[in-house]
Amino acid sequence: MSVAPAPESGAARRAAAAAAAKEEERQRNRKRSNRLSAQKSRMKKQQYVDGLAAEAEQLRRENDAVRAAAAASLRRCRLVEQENRALMTHALQLRGSLLRLLGEVAGVPLDVPDVADHLVQLYGGGLPMMPPLSGPPPLPPEIEMLLFQLQPDVMDAVSMLQDYVSM
Asked: Taking the CB of residue 85, how many other CB atoms lie within 10 A of it?
């Protein structure tokens, strides 16, 4: 014989229905909470990605500015090097002229070599060239002293040159 389930009372059915409704409400609340949490998480992640993109763009701009400044510095450096070579060539020309003049005043012919043409051509520019590694030939000590005196007396210079030539 089979036993039929006992008919539930109205209170038990209502309690079961209330418990089922309560469980369903709890599940809906949990789903809503999970959706809100997921939405917050997505928004936070999007803000983080946007922040990284903005930082990357800022760093790109800074890099471009640094590159531009470095290029400008390099151009200024090359111009200064070119100007230094031109001034060095001019100083060599002036030194030769001064030595020739001192020799003429002293009546002593001095063999002063002219400045090489390739140094004179540096005035025009073009591709940067390095100045020669060796400097001009050294002057005799007597003439060197003449060049560094504050107020040289021409007659002293003449007598020093005459003494130098007679050695």
From this structure: 19
